[in-house]
Amino acid sequence: MTSNLVIVPVLWQFLIAVAQMFSWFNPRLQRKLSVSGNVIQVLIASWLLTEVYRQGILTMNAGKWPAPFGIVFVSDTFSAVLVLITSISGLAVSLFSLANIVEARMRFGYFPIMHLLFAGLNGAFLTGDIFNLYVWFEIIIISSFVLLTIGGEKPQLEGAVKYFTLNILASTIFLTAIGVLYGLAGTLNMADLALKVAAIPNKGLVEVTAILFLVGFGIKSAIFPLYFWLPASYHTPPAAIAAIFGGLLTKLGVYAMLRVFTLVFFEDPIIDTLMIILAGLTIITGSLGAMVQTNVRKIFSYLIISHIGYMVIALGIHTELAVTGAVFYMIHDIVVKTNLFMVSGLLYRVQGTHHIDRLGGFYQYYPRLSLLLAIPLFSLVGVPPLSGFWPKIDLFKAAYLEGGSFITICLAFGTVITLLVIARVWAEVFWRPAENLPERPNFRFWHLFTLAEKIQYITPIALLSAVSLIIAFRAADVHRISQKIASELMNPKNYIQTVLPDKSAEQQ
Amino acid sequence: MKSIILKKASDYLLPLLLLFSVFILLRGHYLPGGGFVGGLIASIAFVLHSFANGLNETKHLLRIHPGFLMPLGLSVSLLSGLYPMVIKKEPFMAAQWMKEPLDVIGLVGTPLFFDIGVYLVVVGVSLTIIFTLAEVA
Amino acid sequence: MEILLAIVTGLLYGAGLFMMLRRSMVKLIIGLILIGNGANILIFLLGRIAKGKPPIIPADAKVLTELYADPVPQALILTAIVISFGLQAFAIVLFKKVYQALHSDDLDTVNTIDDDL
């Protein structure tokens, strides 16, 4: 089906960004535009998802150039679901920014750049052209550099150097891989690539290209030997920015892997084994890193790394069941990780520190708030019936039945350590009596906040916690959608047919 | 560094380069050129002017902050892409052309407006970058 | 021509990596630029080099069978150049700011991130 609706989520974010750039010196108007724009974005994304659900895969040939020649935008169920989840997280982040981002930062264009970032994310999820994917990646990293350095504090700049270098390197490797792939197949359309890559006689060269893609996306999504930029930078910006990064950016790398390694490249035992080993080590090193850290945000950063491993390892198993688990886990993970970084912002606001040795007594003073914060924390661990539990059923089932003992052990190890880490955070931050909280004379503590600011802090956390709970209590529905996505990913015939109606008819 | 030769030359070169940049912009649909190159040439004109006369003179000459050209150019480009989508119910960015070519300018269509948007964005971005660098240094 | 470009690509990648692995921040930027240029030349090379053969189909044919100058790699390179232009400008400003904050060009000093409180 051809429909212009596919491009609307991208354009809408661009329009918000442009409108905000026109009101550059009016942060008050920018805030209103951001929140109302993101509310509409959620509606657009839901509309897109229902249309995709009803009519099947939607495509749009930009500029009316027919498919393998022009850039095509495709929305299958996977893209539509991710756009929806991104929009919901985006809404929460823009609400959280209202109070979390100080006005001085807004004057440097925080909101327009954030919306450009969302436009880039939606574009990357919706494009069906591999070079266009690269362009969206670049839009995302340029905006993320600016967001990361906005304010220009010393730790931010130092984190940015590492983030910048590694991400540029990843893009260059990605670009190299695209170049080699174009040289091999002579096309950039992903559906067309799927047909042409299969026909390339030189399998060794295809394998090398696949490994280049794996390295490029691996740096972006922070898998094992390539993740060191992440814990060095994610704890430096304000909580709202860290929430966008932690929730969405690494998952984009995983999305790209899921897309490219199911659609373009065929199942290859070497790549799969490589993925399983790297992802297993990612889980282990990530969770060990989380064990030894004392800064709450660094703990969460290492947990991001560890949980990226779950999704990549499932892709390495390369069966429908495993991919179902990976997709379900991704849906859950985007919501929870975004929420966690906002929680860390709230903790910092209440007690003036990120250090778990110094935090404490949260439960004593704010029992109801603690209950709210328990939802994202324990969703992450996967305590039944919260949302992290359900995707893990699929993951473990796939690992046990189709994977092997190494995968099962890695998953179990990661889960147990996550439980330990969160239990430690819970015990230190919430249960332990408050002893040596820092004295900060010029710091605006939580109890100095107005009611409006408190609401601006709590609403987004409550919103995402509610989404987590919905995912948990409607797990059967989410699971059914994930299954549909997995079967679409593993059998891309329908995707190819929709994008290239003439070509696939020729082949039959 | 104030050089009288450069200063005098830049007075003549600025309008000439701007005119050349518009020429490059307009010939860009079928021949080498286009919004990006044209925009770079236009910003070079202003950069040259600022070398010769100092940054403040150039800013005075521009009147508006170059950063303002970015949203302006983006909206021109976006609207040229949205026009076929909203009015004609065709895909995003599908080219719409006028029937008859105009004098001097040639055939006018949405790609031209897209290129004008690119031109403005490029001028805005590169001048913002260069002015910022000049102020930081 | 192909062999020459292949060697140039390899040299650019190698030199870029070497520069990136040194301790100076300025050399890091130079390394990134070199690798980016290497990638561009690689795309150019892999798009098959053909001189003076425009991709124009004769009126009576349906497919172009001969070797032709492929315009796609050039479009890709142009896009990549535009993107790297923006990134490099950003990098220079960023590293300048870092230099102002640390008073050092040495990458080993970019390591003072400590949990403030």
From TrEMBL, chain A:
Keywords: Cell membrane, Membrane, Transmembrane, Transmembrane helix. It is a multi-pass membrane protein. Residues 129-418 form the NADH:quinone oxidoreductase/Mrp antiporter transmembrane domain. GO terms for cellular component: plasma membrane. It comes from the Bacteria. PANTHER family: NA(+)_H(+) ANTIPORTER SUBUNIT D1, NADH DEHYDROGENASE. The chain crosses the membrane at residues 6-26, 69-96, 108-127, 133-151, 163-185, 205-227, 239-258, 270-292, 299-317, 329-348, 369-386, 406-427. The lineage of its organism: Bacteria, Pseudomonadati, Bacteroidota, Flavobacteriia, Flavobacteriales. It is found in: Cell membrane; Membrane. Its main location: membrane. Pfam families: Proton_antipo_M. Belongs to the CPA3 antiporters (TC 2.A.63) subunit D family. It comes from Schleiferia thermophila. This is Multisubunit sodium/proton antiporter MrpD subunit.
UniProtKB/TrEMBL annotation, chain B:
The chain crosses the membrane at residues 12-30, 36-55, 67-87, 107-134. It is found in: Cell membrane. Keywords: Cell membrane, Membrane, Transmembrane, Transmembrane helix. InterPro entries: CPA3_antiporter_subunitB, MnhB. Residues 5-127 form the Na+/H+ antiporter MnhB subunit-related protein domain. It comes from the Bacteria. It holds the Pfam family MnhB. The keyword Membrane applies. It is a multi-pass membrane protein. The keyword Transmembrane applies. GO terms for cellular component: plasma membrane. Belongs to the CPA3 antiporters (TC 2.A.63) subunit B family. NCBIfam families: PRK12509.1. This is Multisubunit sodium/proton antiporter MrpB subunit.
Automatic annotation (TrEMBL), chain C:
GO terms for cellular component: plasma membrane. The chain crosses the membrane at residues 6-21, 28-50, 75-95. InterPro entries: CPA3_antiporter_subunitC (IPR050601), NUOK/Mnh_C1-like (IPR039428). Its main location: membrane. It comes from the Bacteria. The keyword Membrane applies. The keyword Transmembrane helix applies. It is a multi-pass membrane protein. Belongs to the CPA3 antiporters (TC 2.A.63) subunit C family. This is Multisubunit sodium/proton antiporter MrpC subunit. It comes from Schleiferia thermophila.
